[in-house]
Amino acid sequence: MMKLSGKELPVPIIQGGMGVGISLSKLAGAVAKCGGMGVISSANIGFHEPDFETATTEANLRALTREIQKAKEIAGGNGLIGVNIMVASAIYKEYCDTAVAAGADAIISGAGLPLKLPQSTKGSNTLCAPIVSSGRAAALLCKTYDRQFGVIPDFLVLEGYKAGGHLGFKKEDLLNGTAKENDALLAEVFTAIAPYEEKYGKKIPVFVAGGVFDGKDMAHFMKLGAAGVQIATRFIATQECDAADGFKQMIIQAKEEDIHIIQSPVGMPARAIESPLLARLRAGEKYPALHCNLCLSACPKGLKTPYCISRALVAAAEGDQENGLFFCGENASRVNEMTTVPELMQSIISEWRNEQ
């Protein structure tokens, strides 16, 4: 049983947040029910709400509250329920405040440095968990939290270059294979956070993400001092995953050569599965948002972007293989069958225990 700032996490596995609409209450609740931390993605979470196009902010915040409550009901008091909130979101603070008010156990935040996250979490029962991709980022966050808020992160998620979706690495390093491996990054992070752990008299648990596939990987990183791991892509091919079957089949059928580094409209490199949409974009077609919901602060608005990433991700969540953008981790080609969350969790846990 792991303690995270007073909260108990029976199994040191975090299910990575996946948006839009891939990890909602069904998946997150099922993972928590098995003793892990299930994570809901807040990214345009209200896309199924009837007023999403006309009152996007209200729809998203309403849906976030409902999904957290539903996930907790499914979990039945087991595990923890977290929310992944992108710093790049145009309503970042509103998402964070709503998650805290709804009783989320943790906010895991990346796609930018969550320098102001403690504004929402300090003094609450919600854990503050930045995503970092370097020791430098971990040091900056700890320094800022210490000076401005008198706190340190409750835990960190170290996301390596093999992760899915938007990545905190230079595109050149991703394409050339020169990005640092998780082992080296983990050592950097430990060095960076050590002075703050000493000052506050407590450890900052670090969970390793990006390329973590099975219990052997989990055991490897925990032997190096990690508190646990975060796994995302493998949870897509489960019956409980909130994505439509079309997305799950894209994961199951993906081959190694189908997985590419792309340039997202928000200005960051990302990892995704080859699809008809990506082929059309390479051919020069454009799919801008005629009605922009202003969902991401870093995104060129409306007609200025080659395609609307929000609508492409919604299409993927709905299983539209022609028009969807299918984010995935580097190891997606190793996922070749449907399973259930309990079966997957038990498999990972058994492998981990055998390696201890």
Task: Provide a brief overview of the structure.
By secondary structure, the chain is α/β, with parallel strands linked by helices. The protein is 37% helix and 16% strand.
Number of discrete helical segments: 12
Q: Any idea what the CATH architecture of the largest domain is?
A: Alpha-Beta Barrel
> Main sheet, how many strands, which sense, barrel?
8 strands, parallel
Query: How much helix is in the residues?
Result: 25-40%
First and last CA, distance: 16 Å
The assigned structural class equals alpha/beta
Report the radius of gyration as a whole number of Å: 19 Å
Write the layout of secondary structure elements.
Blueprint: E1 2-4, E2 7-9, E3 13-15, H1 25-33, E4 37-41, H2 56-75, E5 80-86, H3 92-101, E6 106-110, H4 118-121, E7 127-132, H5 135-149, E8 156-159, E9 165-166, H6 171-176, H7 182-200, E10 206-209, H8 215-223, E11 228-231, H9 245-253, E12 259-263, E13 269-273, H10 276-282, H11 309-317, H12 341-355
Parallel strand pairs: 3-11, 4-5, 5-6, 6-7, 7-8, 8-10, 10-11
Antiparallel strand pairs: 1-2, 9-13, 12-13
Helix pairs in contact: 1-2, 2-3, 5-7, 8-12
Please, could you describe this protein's structure?
The strands form three sheets. An eight-stranded parallel beta sheet has the order 3-11-10-8-7-6-5-4. It has a three-stranded antiparallel beta sheet with strand order 9-13-12. It is globular. It contains twelve helices and 13 strands. With 356 residues, it is of the alpha/beta class. It folds into two domains: 2-242 and 335-355, Alpha-Beta Barrel (TIM Barrel), CATH 3.20.20.70; 245-331, no CATH class. The protein is 37% helix and 16% strand.
